[in-house]
Amino acid sequence: MSKKVVPEEARRRRRPTRQGAVLSEGLIVRTALRMLREHGTGGLTARRLGAALGADPSTLYRYFAGMDDLARAVGNELMGQALDGWTAQGDWRADLRSLGLALHSSYLAHPQAAVLTASRVSGRPREIAVDEAILGLLRGAGLTDRAAVRFYHAFIDLALAFAALDAGALALPEEARRSDEDMWGTTYARLPAETHPNIAATAERLAARMPHSAYPVVLDTLLDGIAAELTGTAPEM
Question: InterPro entries given for it (predicted)?
């Protein structure tokens, strides 16, 4: 049974931890991000986090209902960091594009955290603020509510899916990641045209392109679909 979470103002420690810090949700989440970066998803434990904070591991449960609740808070923080660096300029397409890229970049800045949280829904304020911004841009562009929700779904899932995919590559050991990337210039580039004519014809372009994320290209394709919806030239869906 999960423990009741006490409001932060009622649970803040009066005395600093052994590290000289006063515990807060923000401090715990930031420390969790560091633990994920240093130890990977398997290394985020209450014991390790408590040691890093200079506090008894049980203290964490005064701030979070459990480690899963903390994972959702980490995802909420990544959403918020994207929004912190983004400002709407008044052009729906440019604003959606820049917000999508900000989300993708925020998750890739913390690849281990992205792998852990990209598929989660936190229901926390910073995540909600991102959702409100996306829906506001779509509705403000002139979409019906039905279309706005359809494209919101596609937009956020696309951003998070590519965040998880690209973060998964970044979270690999360096040697493994380099080996995967080099495969395009070694194995694929050496396939004979007699047996693999299409790969052979495009091998040089594949080697240059495939180590990079396809997210910007697919994002632009989605934005083209939204534009077509607004002009009435989109196919029925």
Answer: Homeodomain-like_sf, HTH_TetR, Repressor_TetR_C, Tet_transcr_reg_TetR-rel_C_sf
